[in-house]
Q: What sequence folds into this?
């Protein structure tokens, strides 16, 4: 009896100090992440449509109502287009750069530094340049890239950029691709270099062509890299805010949920609606990230850490 | 098996196309590098141009008369905000890094029941859209009378920086052999003594990585800043956005470009000098190296 108790006490003694040491952070995360998320859901399920209201519980009424609003549908549509172009573009660009750099090139370090540099700068600062580069002024008064295209005789490339009703969000994704491609390149480069040369050599010895080596050996091994790249890009893209503010300001044509939410807080002052939009954003990110986190932790455990 | 018989034949054949291929490869990389540098070039040249040259037809040309006027005038407008950014970034990155180090140490070496669950719940905090906490956070700070000044922003960067800092340190400490920590435990050293005498002395690289990550993300943050600070404590990103807007604070665009560069200089310099650590932080941010 007593020995069993002693063992239990000793076991608690080994982990209790650790738990105590982490507890300040546990409390902070519990309150500021999960507590606030809970509070936000509570707001989203209330009719607190003015800051001074108390807010009665209304269930999912706000969640349903949003879908009959043109601005919300527009914002969601824009976010989808932006996500498709941004994730696809950065993935392809990052993969291409990683592939080209993989075998070692003269000046590799300098090139890598250039490709990655945008990651060190805020979207506000880069957005400012891109606003100017993507200035939609007509050809007579063209500035930025339009002026460059016109001077090079590439008039057919002159376009409305983010002000185009059809392709505005595509243009808006370009600066984001520019900003994140270097990061994705770095992920791919690490992935490529993690594949041992022996493995590739073995495939060659077995009579595989270079293309087969690539499709049969390299690509399957890169799946985790592609997955993390998609998660990183995807969750950033669902939250996009700074970049659009810096390039376009708050325009309906490039509206996204994050800007809609911002307006609900600062212009319209409707906490319940702002919280509802935020809740949708959270759910979209959670749907992407939670399976990934579980997969990562499981994989790590099965690798015996 | 086939390699021994065929290797002498294809070797010379691949040499020539190999050279063309690598030249082509290098050209493509160079072209992309030029495209990548274009916005930087634009920032740089425009920031040294007088207003008379900041016109559409001369936009891509080098300045004919170089001037520092833009930098001087934008310094006047941005320096209070730059100072706010410094006062915000220093405490929030140091405190988050210290908390991250302690958490990482425990989660790697002094695991308690459900440590994996706690860690996963921490990590989720790294990915959430901060909009989902913003309205309650604002309300809480207002009702606790803590709004105003830089405190709300410092708090936010500490709290929401904990997940990534914990992750970086945990992965770093996982590489330290358990035996060393075990031995110290057997010698009777407690959790803190072991941390101070064994773990902390080897933690410098991980601190470099986390501090750089935290400094960069707090410096470049815009979202928390617009929600949680007022005009007196706006950091540089908010002020930069204001002077570039169409409001009364707007300035000519040659000054805007100088402002954008000025606001980016600290993180750019860190990146150029300590790029290796910056990279490692990015890799940790993707969970998988």
A:
């Amino acid at each position: 009896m007593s020995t069993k108790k002693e063992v239990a006490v000793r076991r608690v003694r080994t982990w209790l100090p650790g738990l105590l040491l982490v507890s300040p952070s546990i409390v902070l995360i519990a309150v500021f992440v999960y507590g606030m998320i809970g509070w936000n859901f509570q707001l989203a399920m209330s009719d607190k449509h003015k800051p001074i209201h108390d807010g009665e519980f209304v269930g999912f009424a706000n969640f349903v109502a949003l879908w009959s609003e043109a601005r919300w549908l527009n914002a969601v549509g824009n976010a989808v287009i932006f996500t498709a172009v941004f994730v696809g573009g950065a993935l392809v660009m990052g993969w291409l750069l990683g592939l080209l750099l993989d075998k070692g090139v003269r000046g590799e370090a300098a090139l890598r530094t250039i490709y990655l540099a945008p990651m060190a700068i805020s979207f506000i600062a880069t957005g400012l340049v891109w606003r100017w580069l993507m200035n939609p002024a007509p050809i007579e008064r063209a500035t930025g890239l339009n002026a460059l295209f016109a001077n090079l005789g590439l008039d057919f490339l002159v376009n409305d950029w983010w002000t185009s009703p059809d392709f505005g969000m595509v243009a808006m994704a370009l600066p984001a691709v520019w900003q994140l491609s270097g990061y994705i390149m770095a992920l791919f480069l690490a992935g490529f270099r993690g594949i041992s040369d022996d493995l590739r050599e073995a495939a060659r010895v077995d009579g595989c062509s270079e293309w087969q080596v690539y499709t049969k050996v390299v690509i399957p091994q890169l799946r985790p890299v592609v997955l993390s790249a998609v998660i990183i890009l995807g969750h950033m893209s669902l939250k996009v805010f700074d970049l659009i503010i810096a390039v376009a300001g708050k325009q309906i044509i490039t509206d996204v949920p994050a800007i809609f939410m911002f307006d609900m807080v600062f212009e319209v002052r409707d906490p319940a609606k702002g919280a509802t939009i935020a809740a949708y954003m959270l759910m979209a990110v959670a749907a992407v990230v939670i399976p990934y986190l579980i997969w990562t932790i499981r994989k790590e455990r099965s690798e015996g850490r | 098996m086939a390699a021994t018989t065929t290797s002498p034949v294809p070797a010379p054949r691949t040499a020539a196309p190999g050279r063309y291929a690598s030249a082509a490869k290098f050209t493509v990389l160079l072209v992309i590098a030029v495209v990548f540098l274009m916005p930087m070039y634009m920032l740089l040249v425009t920031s040294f141009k007088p207003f008379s040259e900041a016109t559409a037809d001369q936009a891509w040309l080098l300045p004919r008369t170089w001037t520092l006027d833009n930098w001087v005038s934008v310094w006047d407008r941005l320096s209070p905000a730059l100072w706010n950014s410094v006062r915000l970034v220093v405490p929030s990155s140091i405190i988050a890094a210290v908390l991250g180090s302690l958490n990482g140490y425990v989660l790697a070496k002094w695991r308690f029941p459900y440590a994996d669950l706690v860690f996963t719940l921490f990590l989720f905090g790294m990915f959430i859209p901060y909009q989902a906490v913003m309205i309650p956070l604002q309300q809480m700070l207002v009702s606790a009378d803590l709004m105003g000044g830089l405190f709300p922003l410092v708090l936010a960067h500490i709290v929401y920086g904990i997940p990534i800092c914990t992750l970086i340190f945990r992965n770093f400490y996982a590489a330290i052999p358990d035996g060393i920590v075990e031995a110290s435990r057997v010698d009777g050293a407690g959790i803190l003594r072991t941390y101070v005498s064994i773990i902390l002395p080897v933690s410098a690289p991980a601190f470099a990585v986390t501090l750089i990550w935290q400094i960069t993300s707090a410096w470049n943050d815009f979202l928390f800043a617009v929600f949680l600070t007022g005009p007196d404590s706006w950091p540089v990103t908010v002020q930069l956005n204001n002077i570039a807007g169409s409001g009364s604070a707007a300035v000519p665009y040659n000054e805007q470009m100088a402002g954008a560069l000025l606001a980016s200089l600290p993180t750019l310099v860190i990146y150029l000098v300590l790029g290796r650590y910056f990279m490692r932080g990015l890799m940790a941010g993707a969970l998988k190296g």
User: Anything to note?
Assistant: DSSP finds twelve helices and no strands in chain A. Chain A touches chain B through 101 residues (CB under 8 Å). Chain A has a mean pLDDT of 88. Chain A has one domain: 72-304.
